[in-house]
Amino acid sequence: MIEQLSIWLLEPMEYTFMQRALIASLIVGINCGALGSILILKRLALMGDAIAHAVLPGVAIAYLIGINFFWGAVTTGVITALAIGFVTEHSKIKEDSAIGIMFSAAFALGILIMSNIHTGVDLFHILFGNVLGVSAGDLKLIAILALLVITLIILFFKELKLFIFDHILARSIGLPTSLIHYLLMLMLSLTVVASLQTVGIVLVVAMLITPGATAYLLVNRLSTMMVLAAFFGLISAVIGLYLSFYLNVASGAAIVVVATIFFLLALFLSPKEGILTTKKIFGN
Amino acid sequence: MEAVVELEEVTVSYNEEPVLKEVSFSISQGEKVGIIGPNGAGKSTLIKAIMGLLAVDQGNIKVLGGSIDENRKKVAYIPQKEKIDWDFPISVEEVVMMGRYAHLGLFKRPQKEDRQLVNKSLEEVGMAEYKERQLGKLSGGQKQRVFLARALAQGAEILLLDEPFAGVDQTTQEAIYALLAEISEQGKTVIVVNHDLKRVEEYFENLVLINQRLIAYGTAETVFTHQHLQEAFTTTQKTKSAQKELVVIG
Ligand SMILES: Nc1ncnc2c1ncn2[C@@H]1O[C@H](COP(=O)(O)OP(=O)(O)OP(=O)(O)O)[C@@H](O)[C@H]1O
Ligand SMILES: [Mg+2]
Hints:
The structure holds 2 protein chains of 2 kinds. Chain A contains 13 helices and no strands. By secondary structure, chain A is mainly α. In chain A, about 45% of the residues are buried. The termini of chain B are far apart. In chain B, the strands form 2 sheets. Chain B has a 6-stranded mixed sheet with strand order 5-6-7-3-8-9, with helices on both faces. Chain B is about 40% helix and about 25% strand. Chain B is α/β, with parallel strands linked by helices. The interface of A and B includes residues 169, 171 and 219 of A. Bound molecules: adenosine-5'-triphosphate (ATP) and magnesium ion. Adenosine-5'-triphosphate binds near residues 19 and 37 of chain B. Adenosine-5'-triphosphate (ATP) binds near residues 19, 40, 42, 45 and 195 of chain B.
């Protein structure tokens, strides 16, 4: 039995591309889970989706002019975040609408470029990920980006916590709150770029939000929520990757489905918040 | 006594129309001051302007003899109807610890002294036993006490509270007032916005009555005159009925 399991687990690892895929998924799972916790509590889930879509034109342009897609993706991601902020601050359009307008515009622009000009990039891979195609160079980039994001979270944990929980206090003790907001947007763009190949643009929001939401239902502290979210991100990524190998299904989708199963388990069975365990279903 | 908050001809507006017009008064150290006036009078605006969260169009505000930016650490602000996410994964202790953040600076984690100060503040407001509790699992009055403890932990010399009694019962209200009285006896200045006029004369040494303009400032006897109250609480209605007449005539 154990032997069977270890064969089952080790066999895919004979392929270098599977090793790289596994490491990439692990890193992305941790990175998305940790940052996603912040997005959930700051009600920026929609923003996560927006920035994910907004990197598309950047990727297209980067391929066109022959630079690393990283630079293009981060640039259009951050520009879109700035544009959303600008519209919200300078008109009566509320943030959710501003997000809707700006990210669809950026996404449409990306599709436009890709459909007309031959970029040599497979749109399907960008939209839905292609974790089996991760090269050694890609892996290095993913690791650097994730390390950067996680280091920023650890270094500025105190400030981020205050900013998410009570931005009025943050402002009144003199923290630069708009700077923190844009730092968060930058971290989000970096995370999206790191996740492009694993889950792709369309599904990255699930990796950001679902593990964090699962953790949120289970614990009562921000720090433990982040660690647990990273854990759920990580094991969803690993299980999803194996499923995609053995069942021959798209890896990004498999990872997201696994993450969602964890979420549903927590939703119904969490000792503190579970719908079944606390009988919330019968009303409060 | 030394003046700790001084306003000189302060005018503040959100759009074109000013909501505070040429307001001047000054508050001395250790005073307990109530800011009163009808809804929309500009009470919250006044507090936000003192905190430097809103820019003033004209005039000048001095806090502890300087600008608010020089003295932020010494001023604690508890906003109206806290836009707080009560489900936030945070304990009572962590909330109070945030009062220490002003002093910690970047990259520094709370030290033992910070923890001791947090404990002491929680004891002062009678919330020590709830330290570990998730913030949302407290009653309205207990939540207010936690935010008060946070202001104490901050070591603030001036406390600005915007309507701390919304959704708080009479007993808790009295307990919080007793606490505020103690705080002011330690030489701290307590400024409370309250649009409920019940018993304010018992709780505060001085009152600021505003309705866009400063209508009166001083003890309850000087402020609560028939003329002042009429001016504060009926001007808006008057203009409305005046407008109506105009319409009828026109
Ligand atoms: N963000 C804002 N933008 C534009 N106008 C505002 C804004 N906030 C308040 N106002 C207006 O400024 C005036 C003063 O508002 P403020 O909140 O200071 O009143 P208040 O005295 O605190 O009232 P309340 O007792 O209802 O809390 C009101 O007419 C209000 O409509
Ligand atoms: Mg108000």
